[in-house]
Fold this protein.
Amino acid sequence: MGKATREAYGATLVKVGATHPDIVVLDADLSKSTKTNEFQKAYPDRFFDVGIAEQNLISVGAGLAAAGKKPFVSSFAMFATGRAFEQVRNAVCYPKLNVKICATHAGITVGEDGATHQSLEDIACMRVLPNMTVVVPADAKETEAVITWAADYVGPAYVRLGRAGVDDTTPDGYVFTPGKSLQLRDGKDATIIACGALVGSAIEAAEILAKEGIDVRVINMASIKPIDKVAIAQAAKDTGAIVTAEEHNVIGGLGAAVAEVVTETTPVPMERIGTQDTFGESGTPKELLAKYGLSAEAIGQAVKKVIARK
Amino acid sequence: MSQLSKEQVSLVTNMAKQLRLDIVKEVTEAKSGHPGGSLSIADLVSLLYFVEMNIDPKDPHKADRDRLVLSKGHAAPAVYAALAERGYFDKGELWKLRKINEMLQGHPDMKHTPGIDMSTGSLGQGISAACGMALAGQIDKAAYRVFAILGDGELEEGQVWEAAMFAAHYKLANLTAFIDANGLQIDGPVASVMNVNPIDEKFKAFGWHVLVVNGHDVEALHQAIEEAKQVTDKPTAIVMHTVKGKGVPAMENQVGWHGKAPSEEQCEEFLKAIEEA
């Protein structure tokens, strides 16, 4: 198991902070958890805690951006995108302001804190907003690439980060480009398109399936908006079946975004791994992934099911 | 502290009258909009745009300009009128307010309207954005000032108080918030819908420097703004007692004129009343 994406976020913020004096970081009393405290230690004059006030967090970010700063604002995904949804919509996306919302503790792998803190709808809420770019890095290395990109990108972006450690899947030398996916494994029988913590599980599933003679392509779709339509259409054409995997509600998330492209370009059978329109509960990340059908085993079953439907 | 010259008083007073004429015509042409709360801030907006603010209509984005965030974004007709009168755009735009394919949106849009510093309209958010701008100025040790105009009903939004805490905590002395205390909101008097009073005590308790003035007395407003400039360790709230619909007797203190357009006939009558006042 590799580092959590939030760890890489904090470390990369410190790095880009050195080369980007206009970066300002805001947090809402969670800097030790989101890891923005790393930036605070390095650049105390450019870090501001707004306290437990997420609406103000987002709107102050908008004001900083309107005055020429490059704010990175952080909280848990639940609060940054849920509590402050309308601020993100009206104060950031509508005027297309240069605010980076980097939210941690997304998904069910938040674990023991339970349903109130497990954001399973943030991808949907953020990708529906015009002008918003939505990115879900899979591991520490990809997070570093995404935050490095975000430091130079001008416009609103949402970066979804996790609390728990994840498998490292990103190769050395990787550069993040919005709208570009990363093929991690080729195959001809079906394609698994995953994001975030489930990219590692997708590879694990593909390896198990390979032993059974099933040859699966695996794509890491970190850029959910814009999405890599070319890679999705190609996967549908080449393999004839697609399974998506995310720790998010199947409604509105990666699976829905991929389904939109598949139905409009290259209709093929699909299965979507994700939470099935339900809230989570307390438990360890591993227990929760198993219980809510987000394991490598569940992905493998979905692949077999989708192949049978071809 | 400097006082307004006679010429300045006359300019601001005349322009306030012009803004009121523009507001009534804008809303009539648009057949919708918010005349009451636009008229109540006309004196302040005239003062800010014609005397107080360091701005350049030829360079709306210049870095060291003073900023105005109309947190009560529905009063856009007042600011649009001031921007047009200052030459940010052709005055003819005012009569196309709220029309499809036109520049002037129902609520301020910073992307498409020169001179608008922040997109607003959803209440309670503008003051936070103004805090962000003031913070940026503080980080850069810039000389510019940030002004925000809020409604009294708007103070019912919890976010206003998140921002109020923030501004005091970070000692945003370059931020001045005007509270347009006209006493009315859509569902009735503020005091009976959801009482926000006492406004001055609330801001004091949140750590602000607070002044209470007659919002239609431009010399008093000027003195308050001058005093705010002298305060170096806290933001200033200027609570303005105003009359909703001020300048149009038929609209004054009438809750029904919060968000309603006059008919053509009413418009003629109202313009005449403003002219003759």
Summary: The mean pLDDT of chain B is 97. The domain at 6-276 of chain B is CATH 3.40.50.970 (Rossmann fold). Residues 131 and 216 of chain B are 26 Å apart (CA to CA). Chain B has ten helices and seven strands.
